[in-house]
Amino acid sequence: MKKRKTTKTILSKAERNRLWQTLTAPQKTVLLAHLRYQQASIFTNNNLLGKATDWQFMAYRYNQYYDEPKQHEQLYCACGRRLKHQYILKHQLTGEQLALGINHFADHTDIDAAIMRQLQAKIHEVNFGLDETLRRYRRGVKLKPAIVTWLTTQKSNQFSDTILAYAQANLPLTVADTQLVRQAFAKYERQQQKASNPNQRPRQTKKQKRIQNQATVKLYLKAFDW
Fold first, then answer.
1. Residue 92 DSSP class
2. CA 5 → CA 10, 39, 94, 226, distances in Å?
3. Residue 160, exposed/middle/buried by CB under 10 A (0-12, 13-18, 19+)?
4. Which comes out higher in pLDDT, residue 200 or 187?
5. What is the distance between the alpha carbons of residues 128 and 149, in angstroms, rounded to a whole number?
6. Which residues pair with 83 in a beta bridge?
7. 69 neighbors 104 (Cβ within 8 angstroms)
8. CA atoms within 13 A on the CB side of 56
């Protein structure tokens, strides 16, 4: 019997908008900041534009009101098309600046088609990551309050700024980040228990191990659409 393959799908426009509206203002702020950082990193970390063109990436803007064009100001491409994702490019020789949608780079610049495909693929990954966060949020995936309280008091470089910001905003972490935080917190609890009972050697029963394993499985099932 062949194992059934699982697939993940991008959220529909209506569902993405519905989930976005359920977020609190701080949660939206954290998600938008992370989205802007990831989009900018695509250009700055890979330096894709600088290898084959005189155009330089300057900024990324996200139109969170794309689905509400009548109520809010919108972002536009140089050709006049309304945009959800806007990229600001500057010509290093002339100083000209352009506001473009990713699909219109080739219409207004000399950026190679192969580079365009790389950019579009990486941007698609970022946008898919946002959908995954919203799906986990819909499933109710989050850290326990005790872990969040402990996490926000840590001054170590063990955790990234993204982990701390997501935890404080009560947003779901990735599976890998969740495991990292939970393991660190479990270690902290063992240290606290040992400090309060120095002569008692903590031992984990089979039942405790089974419960812990079941919790890990549930975490993965809740984190992704299977």
1. T
2. 17, 30, 52, 9
3. exposed
4. 187
5. 29
6. 75
7. no
8. 8
**pLDDT at residue 23 greater than cutoff 90:** yes
DSSP symbols for 55-83 = EEEEEEEE-TTTT-TTTS--EE-TTS-EE
Name the H helices within the chain.
13-22, 25-46, 105-108, 113-139, 145-151, 161-168, 175-196, 206-223
Mean pLDDT of the chain, nearest integer: 81
Q: What is the pLDDT of residue 49?
A: 66
pLDDT tens-digit map of 165-185: 999 999 999 888 888 898 899
CB 167 within 8 A of CB 151: yes
Q: Give CA angle at 121 (118, 124), nearest 5°.
A: 150
Which of these, 22, 17, 6, 2, lies nearest to 137 by C-alpha position? Answer: 22
pTM, rounded to two decimals = 0.73
pLDDT for the residue numbered 51: 54
Using DSSP, state whether 217 is helix, strand or coil.
helix
Determine the Cα–Cα distance for residues 209 and 214; give it in Å rounded to an integer.
9
Q: What residue ranges do the domains of the chain occupy?
A: 8-139, 141-226
| Residues 104, 114 contacting (CB under 8 angstroms) | no
State how far the Cα of 41 lies from the Cα of 47, in Å rounded to an integer.
9
Between strands 75-76 and 97-100, the pairing is unpaired
pLDDT for 10-19, tens place per residue?
Answer: 788 888 889 9
Please name the amino acid found at residue 143: L
